[in-house]
Amino acid sequence: MTQPTYKEALTSANHLLATDVATRFIGYGLKKGRALGTLKGVNDSQIIETPVAENLMVGMATGLALKGYKPVVFIERMDFVLNALDALVNHLDKVKRMSRGEFSPSAIIRCVVGNKDKPLYTGDTHVQDFSNALRHMLSFPVRQLHTPADIPSAYAQAKADLDQGRSTLLVEYKDLV
């Protein structure tokens, strides 16, 4: 039996998330590009298309989580997670503590480190990996997915954490897709 490719493993993991009717995938270009093809076959009713506005996306995820949804935010370039730091660090990560446990919104954040090795290199401002910096800013896990074998367990743990009111940031690598 052959091992799945990186993209196949991501697609399978996201389809497992989609089996929960409360799951909502949030991001830009999702209905057309399907998150680099990893959401192909996911029901349109579970996809929320946004403008290119990362802070809005994470803020929307926080609000949806407060209403009982299970948001998965797709940020196609990790470089632009910097635009979402207010919603990510000051809200999603801290609402539970600020509300003394009354509210516990959680989300899965998918961040993709851009391609360095493939044709059409997108430049230095599209290939940065802020995983270590985010680990210092967030109280929830930041998991880097370096191989196809990393994906099933990382997504399973992220889903379990989501069900328990804890967020996760998953770092994916476009060179591997």
Q: State the end-to-end CA separation.
A: 20 Å
The description of the largest β-sheet is: 6 strands, parallel
Q: How many E strands? A: 6
List the helices and strands in order.
HEHEHEHHEHEHE
Structural class: alpha/beta
Inertia-based shape:
globular
Low-confidence stretches: none
Beta content: 15-25%
Radius of gyration: 15 Å
Q: Biggest sheet, strands in spatial order?
A: 2-1-3-4-6-5
Average the pLDDT over all residues and give the rounded result.
Answer: 95
**Helix residue percentage:** 25-40%
- Helix tally equals 7
Task: Characterise the protein shown here.
This protein is α/β, with parallel strands linked by helices and 177 residues long. 36% of the residues lie in helices and 16% in strands. The protein has seven helices and six strands, in the order αβαβαβααβαβαβ. It has helices at 6-18, 30-33, 54-66, 85-92, 95-98, 131-137, 150-163; strands spanning 23-27, 47-49, 70-75, 108-113, 142-144, 168-173. The protein has a six-stranded parallel sheet, sandwiched between helices. Strand 1 (23-27), helix 2 (30-33) and strand 2 form a beta-alpha-beta unit. The radius of gyration is 15 Å and the shape is globular.
Task: List descriptors.
about 180 residues; 6 strands; globular; alpha/beta; 7 helices
Note the topology.
Elements: H1 6-18, E1 23-27, H2 30-33, E2 47-49, H3 54-66, E3 70-75, H4 85-92, H5 95-98, E4 108-113, H6 131-137, E5 142-144, H7 150-163, E6 168-173
Parallel strand pairs: 1-2, 1-3, 3-4, 4-6, 5-6
Helix pairs in contact: 1-7, 3-4
The gist of it:
Helices cover 36% and strands 16% of the residues.
